[in-house]
Design brief:
Layout lengths: L5 E4 L1 H4 L6 E11 L2 E9 L10 E10 L2 E4 L3 E4 L1 H10 L10 E4 L6 E9 L8 E9 L5 E11 L24 E9 L17 H16 L4 E11 L6 H23 L6 E6 L3 H10 L5 H9 L4 H11 L1 H10 L1 H4 L2 E9 L5 H10 L6 H9 L6 H13 L4 H13 L3 H8 L6 H13 L3 H13 L4 H17 L1
Parallel strand pairs: 6-7, 12-13
Antiparallel strand pairs: 1-2, 2-3, 3-8, 4-5, 4-6, 4-9, 9-10, 11-14, 12-14
């Protein structure tokens, strides 16, 4: 640290005005474990009588701690030669800069180096003057403040302007709900009996899914999609009949309940769920799991494949028939629907509190625009958005920005891992590196962001350069 000052030590500080001193260019710096004090001391006008002496001593003081530095002595002729003849050394001992009053320089270039100690941080530098008469009699003494030493405070990074990204507005908000139901039919039949075995529960699953959106005035169902499957036992032709007929039976059942407009309910079927059988075998611990998987993956006719498994591994086949095949007789369903668009910010905020799943990312962004950046409400909008859209790059980027705003670097890093590689994301990774004090990485990211058209990077690069320069001091 440098302190540059021109300080006049007035008569009230050091006695007679004629004997006032000036110091110039005071400099106190820490270097290699030492503290160095440098200054110019003006001795012009220091007239000292022949039998007297004046001792100027800089002193570092901080509370109860103090350290006297080497002194500057100005002596009258008789007093100066008295010390020389008697070999007693000068007033302050070795290291003193000593001059006769008549031969003193106009200005002394003063320099003292001494080991740095912790208490010196915040210490004041005073100049103490002591006037002596015959026989070292202390006639007068005064002190004046020259300056102060404070350790340089390391520069801390300042959060740059954050780059929030507006999501693309959706023309239509399309969503879906899906699941599987295991409707049980009597052997070889395609008629649904709602009270047969677990059908009450399984049909209720489909109905609950439809009801969850159908009763909401903000939602319009566009498609109820059904796809029926049969298990591989029996012939492929018969299973085709069963899968097709059972899917049609479920379609009629739903239409009787809801009376959807024509074209809303759509159906498909797959005679035998070989993909489901393969998943089950792959996760199983069957003794011939590998061989059975090879048969499933073979290109043979489905009936030939099923018969080969039954003949070759009868024990495992019976196990599959009992534990796997019932689950292969199922109907997958999906409810496609649209949600109306919200444009009123206050309505968006109300919906966010109770049904945030209804909002698009752009609607979340609209709500945030009405709030103070960095406020709890502002952060809540983007945190809720990323919960609703956990894999969306834009949602994660904006959530990373709110995390940086509140100083949560760990959360910001987690969100940025899922933010893609848009120019704004690269810039925000630079912000994260800056706030983590990884200035080399921050500089690289910001330079890349600038090359991609992010003008905010210019301001950040200026700050990074200053921080890197400060580290080298």
């Amino acid at each position: 640290m440098k302190i540059r000052t021109l300080l006049a030590l007035a008569a009230s500080g050091l006695g007679l005005a004629a004997n006032a001193q000036q110091t110039e260019d005071l400099r106190i710096v820490r270097s290699d474990g030492s503290l160095v004090v440098e200054m110019g001391i003006d001795l012009s006008g220091m007239e000292v009588e022949s039998n007297r002496a004046v001792l100027l001593t800089p002193v570092m003081v901080n509370g109860a701690d103090s350290l006297e530095l080497s002194s500057v002595g100005i002596y009258g002729r008789r007093r100066y030669y008295y010390y020389l003849r008697n070999g007693a050394g000068m007033l302050s001992g070795p290291g003193e800069m000593s001059y006769t009053s008549s031969e003193r320089p106009e200005k002394v270039a003063y320099c003292a180096r001494f080991p740095y100690e912790a208490w010196m941080n915040g210490a004041s530098l005073h100049l103490h003057r002591a006037d002596y008469g015959c026989c070292n009699t202390l006639l007068d003494e005064r002190s004046g403040l020259l300056g102060r030493y404070d350790e340089p405070v390391p520069l801390e990074p300042v959060l740059p302007t954050l780059a929030y990204l507006r999501p693309t507005a959706e023309q239509e908000k399309v969503y879906s709900l899906s699941g599987s139901a295991f409707i049980d039919f009597p052997v070889n039949q395609t008629v649904i009996y709602p009270d047969y075995r677990r059908n009450t529960v399984e049909l209720a699953k489909i109905r609950a899914t439809i009801d969850s959106v159908r009763s909401d005035g903000d939602i319009r169902i566009t498609t109820v999609w059904l796809k029926g499957y049969a298990s591989p036992e029996s012939s492929y032709a018969n299973n085709t009949r069963l899968a097709k007929g059972r899917t049609a039976a479920l379609e009629r059942h739903i239409m009787q309940l809801y009376h959807f407009e024509p074209g809303i309910v759509r159906t498909d079927f797959e005679p035998e769920d070989w993909a489901g059988l393969r998943r089950y075998v792959e996760r199983s611990e069957l003794a011939h799991r590998g061989e059975i998987l090879a048969m499933i993956d073979g290109g043979d006719d489905p009936d030939i494949r099923e018969a080969r498994i039954r003949r070759t591994y009868p024990e495992e086949y019976r196990y599959l028939l009992r534990n796997c095949y019932p689950a292969l007789r199922h109907t997958d369903y999906r409810i496609d629907y649209t949600i109306r668009r919200f444009t009123d910010v206050e309505e968006i905020k109300r919906v966010m509190k109770v049904q945030p799943q209804k909002l698009s990312l752009n609607e979340f962004y609209l709500a945030a625009q009405s709030l103070e950046p960095g406020s709890e409400e502002f952060d809540e909008v983007f945190e809720t958005a990323v919960r609703m859209y956990p894999d969306d790059p834009t949602a994660n980027l904006n959530a990373a920005n709110t995390a940086l705003q509140r100083g949560d670097l760990k959360a910001a890093r987690r969100y940025l891992d899922k933010s893609g590689d848009a120019p704004e994301t690269i810039y925000t990774r630079g912000v994260l590196a800056l706030m983590s004090k990884d200035y080399g990485e921050a500089q690289l990211r910001m330079q890349e962001a600038r090359s991609l058209g992010i003008a905010l990077a210019d301001e950040a690069l200026v700050q990074i350069a200053k921080l890197k320069e400060n580290e080298t001091k």
